[in-house]
Amino acid sequence: MHEIETERLLLRRWRSDDRAPFAALNADPEVMRHFPERLNPRESDALADRIELAMERQGWGLWALEERASGRFIGFTGLARPGFQAPFMPAVEIGWRLERAAWGHGFASEAARAAARFAFDVIALDEIVSLAVVANERSRSVMRRLGMTHDPADDFDHPLVEQPHLRRHVLYRLTAAQWRAAGAA
Ligand SMILES: CC(C)(COP(=O)(O)OP(=O)(O)OC[C@H]1O[C@@H](n2cnc3c(N)ncnc32)[C@H](O)[C@@H]1OP(=O)(O)O)[C@@H](O)C(=O)NCCC(=O)NCCS
């Protein structure tokens, strides 16, 4: 299991005491604004189970994010294989979800850079993608800060989302060549 340290963060395996703060952020309407529904504690635990299973199987995944200065769990950032069919599949997705109090500090972007570096240098992927509801500007900003690019021709309707206003998604891409050309390697 790979763990990654950045200037202010630890991307680590999940612990049992992450479950309560994870359930709290999954129940926060602001954090979950662009998702079909908030999660109750049982659903939040089930999501953590799925994340941990994927991490054990692959050695990487959606890492638990710990702020090193405080030792606090603040959410997750990392890599996942989307579990649905779409024109851009198969692909590895980079994604993030942080508690509200941890927004506005650059933590998601810092963790995302570390996860992207892992994707290209360790897994040796040629490309990663990221997807979001069109209106999720904060998430799209993280994608842009990472150097990802958006082609409107890649936009798609998420097959697992029923609510019309949340269905349309943007897709951002980052190739290993773009990442290296930007000097991020
Ligand atoms: C998406 C999400 C992770 C973005 O979090 P974020 O804190 O806005 O993103 P970053 O970590 O890149 O932080 C950038 C902000 O920190 C500020 N910042 C402060 N210190 C900084 C530093 N040292 N380095 C970089 N940015 C810093 C930036 O100016 C920027 O502020 P702004 O929002 O006023 O423009 C967060 O909004 C979230 O968890 N949303 C809910 C879940 C979700 O929608 N996930 C994505 C699904 S597709």
Quick recap:
With 185 residues, the protein is an alpha+beta fold. It contains six helices and nine strands; from the N terminus they run ββααβββαβαββαβα.
What this model shows, in words?
With 185 residues, the chain is an alpha+beta fold. Helices cover 32% and strands 25% of the residues. The protein is built from six helices and nine strands; from the N terminus they run E-E-H-H-E-E-E-H-E-H-E-E-H-E-H. It has helices at residues 19-26, 41-58, 107-121, 137-145, 164-167, 176-181; strands at residues 4-5, 9-12, 62-67, 72-80, 93-98, 127-133, 149-150, 156-157, 168-175. The strands form two sheets. Strands 1-2-3-4-5 form a five-stranded antiparallel sheet, with helices on both faces. Strands 6, 7, 8 and 9 form a four-stranded antiparallel sheet that branches. Helix 1 (19-26) packs across helix 2 (41-58). The chain is globular and about 40 Å long. It starts with a strand and ends with a helix. The structure holds coenzyme A. Residues 31, 34, 96-98, 103-109, 132, 136, 138-139, 142, 145 line the site of coenzyme A (COA). Coenzyme A (COA) binds at residues 31, 34, 96-98, 103-109, 132, 136, 138-139, 142, 145.
Outline the secondary-structure elements.
Blueprint: E1 4-5, E2 9-12, H1 19-26, H2 41-58, E3 62-67, E4 72-80, E5 93-98, H3 107-121, E6 127-133, H4 137-145, E7 149-150, E8 156-157, H5 164-167, E9 168-175, H6 176-181
Antiparallel strand pairs: 1-2, 2-3, 3-4, 4-5, 6-9, 7-9, 8-9
Helix pairs in contact: 1-2
Bound molecules: coenzyme A.
Coenzyme A binds next to strand 5, helix 3 and helix 4.
